[in-house]
Structures are given as C-alpha cells and as structure tokens.
C-alpha cells in the first residue's frame, strides 16, 4: 500500500518542527501543506475539528493531532532510529519529562515573554527551567535521551530555539548561560542535530514573528 | 492496605514484585490508576497521603509536581496518571488498556489528552462557579465532542466493547461530575443533552473493575457540598 504522509502546519510553529524532526529522524518522505492560520483550510478543520490547530499528520488519509501524540505514532509506525526507549520504565520517564516540558515549562516561558518580562513570571519560568537543568545534570548526558535525542529533546525544541529568538525580539533575558549552563549547552547540541536543523525555520523569521506577536506596540 | 480484589496472584505478576500506589481516597486521578491495576489483576499496596501533610516519600518520588498519584514499582517511582497507566499496560499483559493498532492507539491518546486538558477543567469550572451560564456553555461544547465520538463510533465504550484508556481517563465525568451535580443541584451531563454520554456513564460505572475502584458516592457528595457549597 502506498505510504502517503502529509503534514499540515506552518514553518514557525515549534510544535510542527517537533513533528518534522521525528519524520526526519525516521527518513520519512512527506508532503508539507502550509496553512494560513488566519484562513484555515477546509481540510485542517475536517482533520482537527476539536482544536482546529497545527500540526496535523495525515497518514494514508488518517489524521492525527497533538504533536507529542503524532511523534509517538511516528515512532511506532516507522522503525529505524528510536524516539522512545524500549524499556518500560525509561519510556515512562521520557513521557513524564515530555509532559513536564509541555505542561509546565512551555506555559511558564510563554508567560514570561507575553508579560514582557514581569518579575514573577520570569521567576516562575526559571523555576520550571531549573527542573530541566537539574535533569541534564543528573543524567550527565548530551541529550535528555542520552547520546541521541528522544521524545523529551523534541518536546523541548522551544527551549533550544524559540527562547533565544524571543529574547532577541523582545530584549528580555529568560534563559542565561550563567543560570542554565547545561540547558544552554544542550540547546547548542540539539539544534546542530541534522534532523533538527532540517526542521527549523530561519531564525530571523522567528524573531520577526515574535516581534509581531509579543512586541511592544 | 488495599490489595486488588483478585484472590489469586496472576502468573504475570512476579511474587517479588513490589507495587505501591501513593494517593488519597476519592482522588479521580488515583482511581484511574487503581482501575487499570484491577483490570490487569495486579496486587498493590495503597498508601494514603494527607495532602496537607505530604509524606517524605511522596516529595522524594515526585519533586516536580509533589502530587498524587505516584506509582512505585520495585522502588522506581512514576508520576502522572496517564504515564502510569501506559507503563502498567506495557509491563503487564492480560486485558489491554490501549489498542494494539498504532493509529487507534494515537486516537486513544488524543482523546485522553483532550479529556484532561479541555473537558475536565471545563466541567470543574462549572462546579466552582455554581453553574455560571458561560461556564456551562463552555463545558457543554467540550462534552459535545465526547458525545459525538460515542455517536460516530457506535460502541458501548470509548474503547469499543471493553473499557480502555479513554474510558478510564473519563472516570471523572462518569462518577465525580454526577456527585458534584447532585451536591450543587446543577444539571450538566443530562440524558436530554448527552444521551450517548449518559448511557456510557451508566455502563462504565457498572463495570466490576470500575465499581471496585470507586469511592463511596455519598461521601463524595458530602465532600462536594462542603467544598463547593454556598456558605
């Protein structure tokens, strides 16, 4: 049966990039369908009626939404480079940390920027990022996944790439090298992985996007 | 101590397996894990936590969230109910909680996420605001997605003929929501508005493993009267 893989998204979305990274890791050929989020396609609304958001992966006509759900699906369907560990306990730990990144770190970091660097918001972002910093310290490895990237690294794409771009766009410091040496080192390593590099949009586009989205009037 | 109700230790659970669950009686998230364990026939030790005075173990096992449930298998802790349930499903064979098929599995995970991120918070908000009109409208919108899913699939449960991850995840809607509705005199999941969902609720709480895992209803109603009740 022909393997038809389509990814609906926009270039600047970190969630879309996470899915692209997973597809790249597995060497999956796919068609990227660019959405205009101010004028969503009939297809997108049909494929993701609950959230009406990107990314949506459509595999042989079957749609899947929510980036981490999509990444796990990709890992199960296409063999090759593993995105999740085999061992049940390590897999559980990976899922837990991916959730921490998504549910705790991401909102805290977004809030730090959207509040224009308000003290309490930045403090909360630091508290959330500190968990990741500690996890890297404890693990002592290059990536959250060990020698190679895994689900957690992919979930933390925004830390590696978007935080820096947002900091530049808004002139706010949220993740300094001084406070977060391990995370900073991890970020450099992460964005230099080929599968990740190939997924990322040009940095200046993301900076421009943030200036528009969060910037002062 | 609250071992599973199975009389025989199932062959797939090793004699030396130490399985503990830190939770509190009545926790909807803790109950999810208990239902999954009962489905698999796994014996476990229930450790009651006082949320106003959390144990050293809990704080050590879950330093990030400091919440229950925390599942501890042979000294190895796992937090977050859905992560725990997937672990249980992978480790112990027997009755499957997740489908085998990758696509159906992805769908189950999607709906479980939706219930946690959209549905439950929306329903909870209705109780907190004592049935504010806007909150009710918002909750109805989210519940409608579940109603539609049951309609479209035409099955007894979200998991098909048997309960699965999504059903377990929606335990709050099947049981806790009804108790809160009674406590506050609010009607939310009604047969009129959500016939499929209401039917699902009745079927779900009548499953033996679910019945065995649920807290006593009157106590929950009393708790909600105290927690949400008008002064």
How does this model look, in words?
The complex is a heterodimer of chains A (217) and B (231). With 217 residues, chain A is an alpha+beta fold. Chain A contains ten helices and four strands, in the order βαβαββαααααααα. Chain A has helices at residues 14-25, 42-47, 67-77, 88-114, 119-139, 151-155, 157-170, 181-191, 194-197, 203-214; strands spanning 5-9, 31-34, 56-59, 62-65. In chain A, strands 2-1-3-4 form a four-stranded mixed sheet, with helices on one face. The longest helix of chain A has 27 residues, at 88-114. Chain A is globular. The mean pLDDT of chain A is 95. Chain B has a four-stranded mixed sheet, covered by helices on one side. In chain B, strand 1, helix 1 and strand 2 (45-48) form a beta-alpha-beta unit. Classes of the chains: A alpha+beta (217), B alpha+beta (231). The interface between A and B is medium-sized, with 24 and 23 residues.
What descriptors fit this protein?
heterodimer; A: 217 residues; alpha+beta; four-stranded mixed β-sheet; 57% helix; B: 231 residues; 55% helix; disordered N terminus
List the helices and strands and how they pair.
The complex is a heterodimer of chains A (217) and B (231).
Chain A: E1 5-9, H1 14-25, E2 31-34, H2 42-47, E3 56-59, E4 62-65, H3 67-77, H4 88-114, H5 119-139, H6 151-155, H7 157-170, H8 181-191, H9 194-197, H10 203-214
Parallel strand pairs in A: 1-2
Antiparallel strand pairs in A: 1-3, 3-4
Helix pairs in contact in A: 1-3, 4-5, 5-8, 7-8, 7-10
Chain B: E1 19-23, H1 28-40, E2 45-48, H2 56-61, E3 70-73, E4 76-79, H3 81-91, H4 102-128, H5 133-153, H6 165-169, H7 171-184, H8 195-205, H9 208-213, H10 217-228
Parallel strand pairs in B: 1-2
Antiparallel strand pairs in B: 1-3, 3-4
Helix pairs in contact in B: 1-3, 4-5, 4-7, 5-8, 7-8, 7-10
């Amino acid at each position: 049966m022909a393997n038809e893989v389509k990814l609906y998204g926009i270039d600047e979305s970190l969630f879309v990039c996470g899915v692209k990274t997973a597809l790249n890791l597995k060497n999956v050929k796919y068609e990227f369908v660019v959405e205009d989020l101010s004028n969503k396609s009939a297809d997108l609304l049909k494929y993701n009626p609950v959230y009406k958001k990107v990314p949506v992966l459509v595999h042989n006509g079957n749609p899947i939404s929510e980036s981490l759900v999509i990444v796990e699906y990709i890992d199960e369907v296409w063999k090759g480079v593993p995105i999740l560990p085999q061992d049940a306990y390590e897999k559980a730990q990976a899922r837990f940390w991916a959730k921490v990144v998504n549910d705790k770190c991401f909102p805290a970091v977004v809030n730090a920027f959207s509040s224009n660097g308000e003290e309490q918001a930045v403090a909360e972002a630091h508290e959330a990022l500190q968990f990741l910093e500690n996890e890297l310290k404890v693990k002592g490895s290059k990536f959250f996944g060990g020698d190679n990237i895994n689900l957690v690294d992919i979930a933390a794409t925004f830390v590696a790439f978007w935080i820096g771009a947002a900091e530049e766009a808004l002139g706010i410091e949220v993740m300094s090298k001084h406070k977060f040496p391990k995370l900073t080192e991890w970020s450099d390593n992460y964005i230099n992985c080929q599968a990740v590099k190939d997924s990322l949009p040009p940095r200046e586009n993301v900076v421009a996007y943030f200036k528009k989205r969060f910037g002062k009037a | 101590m609250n071992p599973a109700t199975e009389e025989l230790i199932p062959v797939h659970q090793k004699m030396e397996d130490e399985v503990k669950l830190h939770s509190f009686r009545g926790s909807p998230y803790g109950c999810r894990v208990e239902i999954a364990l009962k489905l698999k026939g796994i014996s476990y030790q229930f450790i009651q936590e006082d949320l106003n005075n959390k144990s050293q173990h809990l704080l050590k096992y879950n330093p990030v969230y400091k919440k229950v449930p925390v599942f501890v298998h042979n000294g190895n802790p796992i937090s977050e109910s859905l992560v725990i349930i997937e672990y249980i499903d992978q480790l112990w064979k027997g009755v499957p909680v997740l489908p085998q098929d990758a696509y159906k599995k992805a769908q189950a995970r999607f709906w479980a996420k939706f219930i946690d991120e959209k549905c439950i918070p929306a329903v909870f908000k209705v109780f907190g605001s004592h049935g504010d009109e806007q909150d009710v409208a918002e909750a109805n919108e989210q519940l409608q997605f579940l109603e539609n899913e049951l309609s479209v699939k035409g099955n007894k449960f979200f998991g098909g003929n048997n309960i699965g991850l999504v059903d377990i995840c929606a335990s709050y809607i099947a049981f806790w929501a009804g108790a809160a509705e009674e406590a506050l005199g609010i009607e939310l999941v009604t047969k009129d508005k959500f016939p499929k969902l209401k039917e699902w609720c009745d079927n779900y709480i009548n499953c033996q493993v679910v019945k065995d895992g649920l807290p006593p209803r009157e106590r929950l109603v009393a708790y909600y009267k105290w927690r949400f009740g008008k002064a």
